[in-house]
Automatic annotation (TrEMBL):
GO terms for MF: heme binding; iron ion binding; oxygen binding; oxygen carrier activity
Globin domain: residues covered: 12-152
Taxonomic source organism: Pristionchus mayeri
Similarity annotation: Belongs to the globin family.
Superkingdom of source: Eukaryota
Pfam families: Globin
The protein, known as: Globin domain-containing protein
Gene3D superfamilies, alphabetized: Globins
UniProt KW Heme keyword: yes
List of residues binding heme: H101
Keywords attached to this entry: Heme, Iron, Metal-binding, Oxygen transport, Transport
């Protein structure tokens, strides 16, 4: 395992301590907070959430859908951070994630953009140093590279 992969994994996992998953209210709130952040700062992405295209942060806060979706999203990002040091498993999870999202016909550029949005969200939860921001950017690059290859190999739009 390259030392860089281990360091990226370590930094990302450490920063995820501020965005934990679980059934306690504070952990449920972490997931809601991601969508509140995204819907407020990137309202153009709401089009990918059928029935929630006009949702505000208050709507997200009261939504059982986004409570559950927030947990799913955080779980997925935790899995990415936990598996990053094992690139074979990490890339398999990337492909699986792409497969699960096919039905949404997402712009392929959003896979890389997600990591920018997620890092900005994390900064609302904890202070990120430059090394941690770089680690998230590196993970996003590796994720996106695998995502685009998989999209291309699947005959889907890619960058």
């Amino acid at each position: 395992i390259p030392a860089m992969s281990l360091e990226v994994a370590r930094l990302c996992k450490t920063s995820m301590e501020s965005a934990r998953v679980g059934t306690d209210e504070d952990k449920l709130q972490n997931g809601r907070d991601f969508y509140k952040f995204m819907f407020t700062h990137f309202p153009d992405l709401r089009v990918y959430f059928k029935g929630a295209e006009k949702f505000t942060a208050d709507d997200v806060q009261k939504s059982e859908r986004f409570e559950k979706q927030g947990q799913r999203l955080l779980l997925a990002v935790h899995v990415l951070a936990e598996t990053y040091a094992n690139q074979e498993v990490f890339k398999a999870y990337v492909r699986e994630t792409i497969n699960r999202h096919r039905v949404y016909k997402m712009d392929p550029s959003l896979w890389l953009a997600f990591f920018t949005v997620f890092t900005m969200y994390l900064e609302t939860k904890t202070k990120l140093d430059q090394a941690t921001k770089n680690a998230w950017a590196e993970m996003g690059k590796v994720f996106n590279d695998e995502a685009q290859v998989h999209l291309k190999n699947s005959g889907l739009p890619h960058t």
